[in-house]
Amino acid sequence: MRNNRASSAVPVVILGAGPCGLACAHELQRLGHRDWVLLEAAPTVGGLGASVVDEAGFTWDLGGHVVFSTMKSFDTLLDDLFAPHELLHHERSSFVRHSGRWVPYPFQQHLHHLPVARAQTCLEGLVAAQARGRAPAGTDFGAWLEATYGTPLVEEFFAPYNRKIWATALSEMSASWIAERVAPADTSALRQTRVSGTTPTSRWGPNAQFAFPASGGTGAIWKRLASRLEGDVRTGQAVLHIDEAAKTLLTSDGTVLSYGSLVATGALDKLVAMTAGAPAQVRQAATALKHTTVAMVGLGYESPTTDRRSWLYFPSGETPLYRATNFSRYAPANVPDSDPGRYSAWMTETSLPAGTLLDEAGLVEECDTALRRCGLVPDRAQRVSSHLELIPYAYPVPTAGRDTALARIQPWLERHEIYSRGRFGTWRYEIGNMDHAVTMGQDIARRLVHGTAERIYTAPRPTAQEAVHGR
Predict the structure, then answer these.
(1) What's phi and psi for 52, nearest 5 deg?
(2) Between 3.50.50.60, 3.40.50.300, 3.40.50.720, 3.40.190.10, what CATH number should domain 10-48+220-290+399-469 receive?
(3) What does the pLDDT read at residue 386?
(4) DSSP secondary structure string, 84-111?
(5) From CA 11, how far away is CA 260, in angstroms rounded?
(6) Mean of the per-residue pLDDT values for the chain?
(7) What is the pLDDT of residues 77-134, one digit of tens each?
(8) Contacts for 109 with CB less than 8 Å, ≥ 6 apart
(9) Distance (Å, whole) CA 263 – CA 13
């Protein structure tokens, strides 16, 4: 029964205790502002960065997270939360499963691992594509890949892998999000590699080195951050309704909260749906936002960890998973009794279109079979744990119409002092890492307190017509 308790206005209410929401609360506290309320629908903190321990004692993350950063403020926060010995550091060792062999990642920089004829065809296609020049502005993702890498390389890897991970036709996706997400290919270096037979020594990407908590999984970061908060943190408190005109919200236990500013870090489409006065154009724009669902299947074996690689990509349609993470390699504490000499743990991820009905038992068996078939798990290894977590909102898909939709939604929300941030709050995959989420949380706190500019979030600008009709 709802008690409809009313309360006096809280200067800032934060929705979601994931990396962004926790960072926002922590920064408000650091700035001397403790009069805030943080509401989290789940029973625990962490959001998409949470970790779970299954009945057999294996720790699993909600997807393949690693700790790396290009943001100094995130590094400072991590240093404050963990002593040096509490973080384990790794060099990335990642491979792509292709035609029964392992090709080092990034695939396009290691074509010499392919059969000679295929490697030559891919290289010729790459050279021809680069000779034609860059893809024109506004090109869809599929066309951008063709223009950047050439048809053979796209057919060998890029198209099957990206269709698999995004569960979306590449022609429906924008290419505006790419930035550091897709590695380049140097044709002169590839030619030299073919002649010398040596592998390039450069390590592309910001996650070439990464850290991981010695115990507790990625979720340990957010539990520690939450433990530093001295304000009002309420878990198990879902928000059902927002009245942006009255600046009130209703929670699942019947509490009515009045707020000055609302920082929302959950899914933007859900935020719009629960906001009473959102106009039809804004609601319609929210329906255009697409996302993937990911099934994380964690498989624990009574077999020692012997593989030294970090994670592996599976572009082929022969297996449902798109990535397998060597989770016992990340930290010994991820297996029972911290004993990688006895146990191993593989975390697999399978992407699904939102709303897909899933045969959970069947998926577990398919993932187990795939790991054994490609030699990651010995045929006779006893499986002692099978844990599945369905993550309904896993990745926001950068569709061609995304930016237009955001340009209608976000300015309207901000006019009502509702600030939507974080991976799904901005719906921008290109700023969807943990360090991005933390930075956005810190930045919106500083903006609310001091009016300072945000570092990585830039509000989309509506057209003149949208500004008039989207009020």
Answers:
(1) -130, 155
(2) 3.50.50.60
(3) 98
(4) GGGEEEEE--EEEEETTEEEESSGGG-G
(5) 5
(6) 91
(7) 999 999 999 999 999 899 999 999 999 999 998 999 999 999 999 999 999 998 998 8
(8) 183, 185, 186, 189, 190, 200, 204
(9) 6
